[in-house]
Known about the structure:
This protein is mainly α. It has helices spanning 13-34, 47-73, 75-78, 82-108, 122-130, 137-151, 158-172, 182-187, 189-197, 199-208, 211-231, 239-259, 264-272, 275-298, 302-333, 344-347. Helix 10 (199-208) packs across helix 12 (239-259). Keywords: Acyltransferase, Cell membrane, Membrane, Transferase, Transmembrane, Transmembrane helix. It comes from Leifsonia aquatica ATCC 14665.
Amino acid sequence: xxxxxxxxxxxxxxxxxxxxxxxxxxxxxxxxxxxxxxxxxxxxxxxxxxxxxxxxxxxxxxxxxxxxxxxxxxxxxxxxxxxxxxxxxxxxxxxxxxxxxxxxxxxxxxxxxxxxxxxxxxxxxxxxxxxxxxxxxxxxxxxxxxxxxxxxxxxxxxxxxxxxxxxxxxxxxxxxxxxxxxxxxxxxxxxxxxxxxxxxxxxxxxxxxxxxxxxxxxxxxxxxxxxxxxxxxxxxxxxxxxxxxxxxxxxxxxxxxxxxxxxxxxxxxxxxxxxxxxxxxxxxxxxxxxxxxxxxxxxxxxxxxxxxxxxxxxxxxxxxxxxxxxxxxxxxxxxxxxxxxxxxxxxxxxxxxxxxxxxxxx
Length: 362
């Protein structure tokens, strides 16, 4: 999530601030969908339903916008030779993907009731990390998207973007069997390509947008989302991708405004630059929190449930982010850098590394 290959000039503050917002929303979405809504709320007011609606509201744009920003930050690396970017853009993310998929699998075995797909054997694990990616699928996407985009770099940009757009429409319409996060992997390639190939246009767009336009775009997103929900047209071909595009555009419009906010902007940018460890660590912590809280809250008095129903998602999200960053700091202090980057032995210059390497299709 944090791009180690981007030059400082390429890392505009709005991009990091936006990533800070998005990683917080990712954690919040997981809290709502994987824990909060599974609690037996015995209330006479629809507070849990309100949080569920909020989770539904942010989902059409959440990962598309994250992948678009990731593609945007990958634009510089995309123009460089394979010898420079293969390790940082493909090997590194595949390494982290396999490593943390194993860590998550081992951790989730301790929480069999937690609602996530957990491989129970070698064959299931192989299927999981290849065609039905687990919760760490974003890392797989970063490596796979960049690899495919680089392989197709001699084609006009509109060809892979159009092909990926058709794939997004097909997936959103339910024509492809979705197991685990396979649908997300296939659906979001379009947005990565848009960020990758339209980086200069996105930069100019963000620089020109003003508060009034941002508010209009946010209102437009709320309108198209409401229309989709009220008409039940989520799986009508093209409707969900259209809603995603409007949401992504609104998110881009809001990003520079957030980045310019005193204290809030720098804080979110700081968080955005640390989005990778938050993404990797928060899910096992959430499973532990769900194990400790769900049963107790389900049996609690109405007064306790009412307070928890209102504040639990926000508080738990903050605790998970803080806990993830604390663990990250402790692990780095103890020398476990290999959990978040390629091991040092893999980054040493090998004999012949200075020779220009070309992929088979180049």
